[in-house]
Specification:
Two copies of one chain form a homodimer.
Chain A: H1 10-32, H2 59-76, E1 79-84, H3 90-99, H4 102-106, H5 114-123, H6 151-159, E2 165-172, H7 179-184, E3 198-205, H8 221-230, E4 233-239, H9 243-271, E5 279-285, E6 295-296, E7 299-300, H10 319-331, H11 334-337, H12 346-349, E8 393-395, H13 396-410, E9 415-419, E10 437-438, E11 450-451, E12 456-458, H14 462-474, E13 478-484, H15 492-505, E14 517-522, H16 540-545, E15 552-555, H17 560-572, E16 577-581, E17 586-588, H18 593-602, E18 604-606, E19 631-636, H19 638-654, E20 660-665, H20 683-690, E21 696-700, H21 705-711, E22 720-723, H22 734-740, H23 745-755, H24 762-784, H25 789-792
Parallel strand pairs in A: 1-2, 2-3, 3-5, 4-5, 9-12, 9-13, 10-11, 13-14, 14-16, 15-16, 19-20, 19-21, 21-22
Antiparallel strand pairs in A: 6-7, 8-17, 18-20
Helix pairs in contact in A: 1-2, 1-3, 1-5, 2-3, 2-9, 6-14, 13-17, 17-18, 19-23, 23-24
């Protein structure tokens, strides 16, 4: 076949093709071979793994792109990483990391010789070995394969604030059907060509998913072209199944797009012009399972969905399959690629970049290596004055906003705040005193706080916020995600995958810890009374606590100062998922800053000032057993704390002799046994706080069952009675919301009366009063449309 | 201002504009007014609600579309419903339902007079009244506002198999930024113009979200036009802020698109040509908060994000605001719109369609009215023979596939199966003996089972599958969604919203029950050993059980026959979310069909054939107390059942005197108290099954804490020891997976030894043997890459 015209000389073409053959050979070897890694002898069934697990279909395309990225990296000294949407293509990325030496550097037992090759092949998708997907174990990856949809958001997250970085992001045509991916093309409206790096999306159309074609491969190319232009890109199409022609065409296109990206950046930076250019992208259309078996058992395999996993699989039962595998492996001519020792031949090793320019060794893909502490102002400077507990009001998140503003100012290139159009709604608007929203679409007169170089990322997509932030953290930076509590469930599955990444990477020595993923969940269930039922769901906490205890932290600061203390702690932490739940509405301040710090540090504690179960001389937790309470009023969350204190006030007035202890929980994981969670408290301490046998009325922010789940092993568990959100809500008043869920002060008093038999004759009257008070509150609300003033303006009288 | 050219005569224009003014007036009235609904007296502060909660910004646009839809419905006798993406626009939809009389029909107290108007206004977003969003309470709605992203998928779901239905779907430009919405434009590749109805998407660009502009409103119109063409639509642009011009232009475009849809359908149906046409869609660009206050307190409100909620809000404190509100209300000239009694004037009432042609009264928007039972074949005909328990193998989902195939055949227009490209992978391929995948993109030689009129909906987007199915169910049809267990979390938040819809509509008398949403979660955590950690997550069960007990059902059938029985039950049920978890790999059959039916009907029961805690004469549950077991081995899920039986086998051999009771749970909700869930069993029955004081070793499919949460109130709870998935996984063998999570047979035996002190001298030796067996199993696996044959081929010996 005559050479196609293109930028590659015959020798370059021959060598890049050989490099691709080597990567493909190593990929097939990983999927199949236990032994005989260089085919130095005839292939026998015992050389082949008994269970064949892996995905071939996407791999040759990934290898092609890798080889051509290597070429332009070397030619242009690019600083590039590779984000692999088709995460099934694990063997290809392992193969490339091995070919360029990184793999042996981080896993010294996988040597660059025949013995190492044998181990490389054997470990893949093998018990005790490595996963079959692009996984944390693979150097160069910031992106686990498996759940699809996040390649582009991760890529953009990596590119933000990395002006010299080029992120090559391969989007599989299966992944392209997902919602998150479909939205994430619009990330180009949030990227500043002056300040940020570049993302080169390569839409790889191999045409098939597991069992059927893909949508984007089956619409006319003109329609696909319009779609990409509509998304704001300049598409370059490369289509083919003849390797040489594709090499030439792809090389030409790669040269063009790399030059175009350089031109865009030069122009933007020379003139300080951040306006959004039509960034180039590539549509690469090549056969699925390219270069693999064409026809197996009479059915077309290459170029169809049948090559998705293992294209020829009956190796141990069918001699023809064994022969087909051997033909396939030999088709790459491994004897030309690897020398007698099993090393890649010298003329090919030079095709990879060297040192940190290797995509598998680029430190951006091991973000912890680049991570630096945030410069944090002293959060105590933002404290609200609290002369007496529960007498003044703050909007806790607004107080936090001032702190976050100064964190932003002090860290102008390594900190971003994400939020789905809710930053101001969530009272974090102080951020806009120091920065703007990132926005690289049209800006018109009258727009506020929009700029291409803004550092608050707002888009009405929790998926994009989450994906950008993950990409940003995974490449060694810091961030903060504020979200309406109910809608954070939109990213449940993304959180799962990130939690799995964190869990796995804790045990990979060469992976350095990254900054924690910090959530502020606000506009929460108890103050979504105006948006109603659809906005009320506190279940994200339940979701995250199923993940590994070592990476999950949940905080429910009850007021502004505790929120400041918790937020500071979270911003300093590493490799966790921190969930902070805090309200944005005016709410009582309970603790002055010093007390707030102490309380947050303990995570859980008796609020002596609200308790009367001991004398002033013994106001310490350890002395509590001396003055055993009649009832423990526990609370976690700002609204439960308010209702608990109000209930305690009522109890005090009606039952002055009743010994009431108030326990407040900031760090929810304290409730678990210390054997289950690093923050868990000992049974002795739990018993000291909650007693061994007194009733505990526990007012909790979320679904009440979680408290039972966390405490079921505790001594006094059978006496713990939990109130929380029981999935009752609508558009109504704040107090009606707590009444609908039996979390209101009057009901908490009823709960105490029901569980403390010693209250005497007055109890029946008070019980009746409480029922009447609930009826009165509801009647007033339904008549006047507001809560009774004495309820909504209630303050703690002590 | 001279009239723009257009299809409306001056009189038509005047009247449609008056109708729009009426809807806008009623919308503003709902947001603001407690009294004085017709402005018959000067507006005073006491006429205005004390809390102003609602969203004005999107409402005038929704009202405009509604009025113009009414016009084309009447002109063409269309059968149409209205799916409202901008769900905040509740007041507009209520206003229109009221104007056309439906509202008073379903809520007779809201009369069509001044008194009714007063009640209509007062109830909106008011305690004891109706939510502020497009909610289940609103006739004509199939779509709760709040969480955004699902308007188009719901619309397509409604259109499937409804050839005469036109679904007008308004997509807000905020919603358009979400992932699910971005992907759902591609739904046109899954719609058959011959068989299905039509969706008319109207992208309503009012330019702003809560606090900032929207992406699609700030890209050049040419780019947006390309985007829509790339998605496969023919866009028509209507832009303006002058009402008369917009009326004329919009009317002209509506005439064009309705004619174009009719032409497409005529042509497709006349020639039986299902090929995908470029369906028309409309881009409507009008100001946010159009016709509302232009400037308030010196800031531009109309046409900006400041009109998102309540544009002038200090009514009670600021006389100027009160005056502005009064001017605003008067600007609609209510005295021309409503007669002396407060009724819409006669010349306007005729602008609405009548009877079921009213979008608010269309029965498709109250799907339960149209719902008919499925024609179900007898599921017993698909039973696998089970002569002896645990001696033969089936792939449970493959057996189910045969049943589903015949359900599909028997219900050719009212049943669909959804799956993200996993129908064959999940062993439901028998469906393709009777239908194909729905596919209206290119089909090429070699493609299997693709057709425009296919009834299996496969796309690599759980969001689309879920949204289509919701739309299909909400309009009165049936469906079944099979999904990889781990990735169903992708739709956690959609499930929340659907659960809320079901919960709320149970208490709305005129809403008829709809078919249940049935999930089959397969390729589950214990048999995702080949895809690894990213594919392993059983937490969806935890997610759904937070929703209201009255609508949640969770089933863990242990084998093929129980799966058939459960599936039949779920397909007959109404208004539930049914979650079925079942494996697809070859697994033991335990129960013949009669026993399977009995077991599933009970939901939980002792497996006498596997137990030895009583003599053959007393093989009934109630007799169990006669022969108290030494240990109860409980199991829920196919793999836990296998491991439990294997452990019982080991126990029998080593401790023949040990009395072991095996309890299997199919219906997980049985474990809850009967006070908590309708399927919950009484404490007496629970104690009879689990004893009051014997150790219970509970092998569970998912996260073990859930079992504690469900049983914490039970007598014997402190003796329940649960094994389940503890978030340990990777690419390894099936048995290694259960070992990593301590759910394996050997560990269950160890658990028994640890908890039954009476086992005597042999216990220490057996304990040691079990540890050795685990080491041997792991060593073998790491050496050979497979499980030891005696483990993977294990069968129950009794």
């Amino acid at each position: 076949m005559p050479l196609s015209p293109g930028p590659l000389s015959p020798d370059e073409l021959r060598r890049i093709h050989a490099y691709w053959r080597a990567a493909n050979y190593l990929s097939v070897g990983q999927i199949y071979l236990l032994d005989n890694p260089l085919l130095r002898e005839s292939l026998r069934a015992e050389h082949v793994k008994p269970r064949l697990l892996g995905h071939w279909g996407t791999t040759p395309g990934l290898n092609l792109i890798y080889a051509h990225m290597n070429r332009v990296i070397r030619a242009n000294d690019l600083n590039a990483i590779y984000v692999i949407g088709p995460g099934h293509g694990g063997p290809g990325i392992v193969a490339n990391a091995y070919l360029e030496g990184t793999y042996s550097e981080v896993y010294p037992s996988i040597t660059r010789d025949a013995a190492g090759l044998r181990r490389l092949f054997r470990q893949f998708s093998f018990p005790g070995g490595i996963p079959s997907h692009v996984a944390p174990e693979i150097p160069g990856s910031i992106h686990e394969g498996g759940e699809l949809g996040y390649a582009l958001t991760h890529a953009f997250g990596a590119a933000f604030d990395n002006p010299d970085l080029l992120v090559c992001a391969v989007v599989g045509d299966g992944e392209a059907e997902t919602g998150p991916l479909a939205a994430s093309w619009h990330s180009n409206k949030f990227l500043d060509p002056v300040r940020d790096g570049a993302v080169l999306p390569i839409l790889h159309l191999n045409g098939y998913k597991i069992a059927q074609p893909t949508v984007l491969a089956r619409i006319p190319q003109a329609e696909l072209d319009q779609l990409m232009r509509g998304y704001g890109y300049q598409p370059f199409h490369v289509t083919g199944d003849d390797p040489e022609r594709v090499h030439q065409r792809f090389a030409a296109v790669m040269d063009t797009v790399v030059a175009e990206i350089a031109r865009i950046q030069r122009q933007a930076r020379a003139h300080g012009d951040p306006s959004r250019p039509p960034w180039p992208m590539i549509v690469l259309r090549t056969p699925k399972g390219w270069t693999g078996p064409s026809v197996v058992d009479g059915a077309q395999v290459e170029g169809t969905w049948r090559s998705h996993q293992v294209p020829v699989a009956q190796i141990h039962d069918n001699p023809e399959h064994l022969a087909e595998l051997e033909r396939w492996l030999h088709s790459y001519r491994p004897e030309e690629l690897f020398d007698a020792d099993g090393r890649l031949v010298a003329e090919l090793t030079g095709l990879a970049p060297s040192g940190n320019r290797r995509m598998s060794a680029n430190p951006h893909a091991n973000g912890g290596e680049l991570l630096r502490d945030l410069a944090l102002p002293d959060f105590r400077d933002y404290a609200v004055e609290v002369a007496n507990p529960a007498t003044t009001f703050s909007e806790a998140t607004r107080v936090l906003g001032g702190f976050l503003r100064d964190v932003m100012t002090a860290n102008p290139t390594t900190f971003r705040v994400m939020g789905p159009d809710e930053t101001v709604s969530n009272r974090l608007g102080a951020l806009f005193q120091t920065t703007s929203r990132a926005w690289n679409a049209q800006i018109v007169d009258g727009d506020d706080d929009l700029a291409p170089d803004g550092r608050v990322m707002e888009v009405l997509s929790e998926h994009l916020c989450q994906g950008w932030l993950e990409g940003y953290l995974l490449t060694g930076r810091h961030g903060f995600f504020s979200c309406y509590e109910a809608f954070i469930h939109i990213v449940d599955s993304m959180v799962n995958q990130h939690a799995k990444w964190l869990k796995t990477t804790r045990h990979i020595p060469w992976r350095r810890p990254i900054a924690s993923l910090n959530y502020l969940l606000t506009s929460h269930v108890w103050r979504q009374d105006h948006n109603g039922f659809s906005h009320q769901d506190p279940g994200f906490i339940d979701h995250v606590v199923n993940k590994k205890a070592e990476i999950i932290r949940v905080y429910l600061p009850p007021d502004a100062n505790t929120l400041l203390s918790v937020a500071d702690h979270c911003l300093r932490s590493r490799h966790y998922i921190n969930v902070i739940v805090a309200g944005k509405q005016p709410a009582l301040n309970y603790l002055p800053m010093d007390a707030a710090i102490a309380h947050c540090t303990r995570g859980i504690g008796i609020w002596d000032w609200a308790s009367n179960d001991h004398g002033p001389a013994s106001r310490s937790e350890h002395a509590a057993a001396d003055g055993m309470p009649d009832v423990v009023m526990a609370c976690a969350g700002d609204i439960p704390t308010l209702e608990t204190l109000a209930a305690v006030d009522i109890l005090r007035r009606h039952f002055p002799d009743l010994k009431v202890r108030v326990v407040n929980i900031v760090d929810l994981m304290c409730l678990q046994p210390d054997s289950e969670h690093p923050h868990g408290i000992s049974n002795a301490r739990f018993d000291a706080l909650f007693t061994a046998d007194r009733p505990v009325i526990f007012a909790y922010h979320g679904y009440p069952w979680l408290i039972h789940r966390l405490t079921y092993r505790r001594t006094n568990h059978t006496n713990i009675h939990v109130r929380g959100y029981i999935e009752e809500g609508t558009t109504t008043t704040p107090f009606d919301m707590v009444m609908m869920n039996n979390l209101d002060r009057f009901h908490l008093v009823i709960d105490v009366i029901d569980r403390v038999p010693s209250l005497g004759a007055r109890a029946a009257h008070v019980w009746q009063d409480m029922v009447d008070a609930r009826i009165a509150a509801r009647t007033y609300t339904r008549d006047f449309g507001t809560d009774m003033p004495e309820i909504s303006n209630w303050t703690w009288p002590y």
